Amino acid sequence: MPSWPQVARRIRVPSGFAFAAVYLWLARPLARSLMFGAGFVVLGLLIRGLASGHLQKNRELATTGPYAWTRNPLYLGSLIIGVGFAIAARSLWIAVLLLVMLFAIYLPVIRSEEEFLAAQFPKYADYAHRVPRFVPRVRPAAHRDWEFSWGLYWKHREYNATLGAAAIMAALVLKLLRNF
Q1: Which of 42, 77, 139, 142 is least crowded, fewest Cβ atoms below 10 Å from its Cβ?
Q2: Are 176 and 29 in contact (CB under 8 A)?
Q3: Which DSSP category does 141 fall into?
């Protein structure tokens, strides 16, 4: 029988699609909530994009760039995107559902990924000691030069996060206009 982190890893994307349907049903956007929430969404997308364009999955331990501030910039970006969409939707239920998903799905997945990284990369323990799991450091742990790679961004298909965010935002705008 698979462990909960294994199940959580498998259901996180499908649960996101189910959540999107519930989200659009519960959302009560206003023009100003959309604009304010969009700022968070854009910030989250930027963080995710920078992290994705820096990550060499399973080949190299990422410790510079966004990974010098937090061990999980992709998840941090996703959380900020979620906060932005919760603000845009103006629904307490959506905020509660986001918190439930964070604790029930994403934290177990993060812990599982950390176990994998610790087994894969001998320097992970030292890195984990210096860099927080989620809440970013004030100053980066590593000051080495790093370069963003559009190739990695495209390889990891990070553009899907931007396309999905744009689609949800467009649906919110349509819902707002329909309710006028």
Answers
A1: 139
A2: yes
A3: S
Whole domain around residue 174: which residue ranges? 4-178
pTM of the predicted model over 0.70:
yes
Q: What are the pLDDT digits (tens) for 102-143?
A: 889 889 999 999 999 999 999 999 999 999 999 998 888 876
Cβ distance 172 to 27 under 8 Å? Answer: yes
Q: Count up the domains in the chain and report the number.
A: 1
- What is the domain-level CATH number for residue 166? 1.20.120
Confidence band for 38, pLDDT divided at 50, 70 and 90: very high
Q: Which of 159, 158, 153, 114 is nearest to 134 (CA)?
A: 114
Hey, what's the torsion of the CAs at 94, 137, 58, 107, to 10 degrees? -30
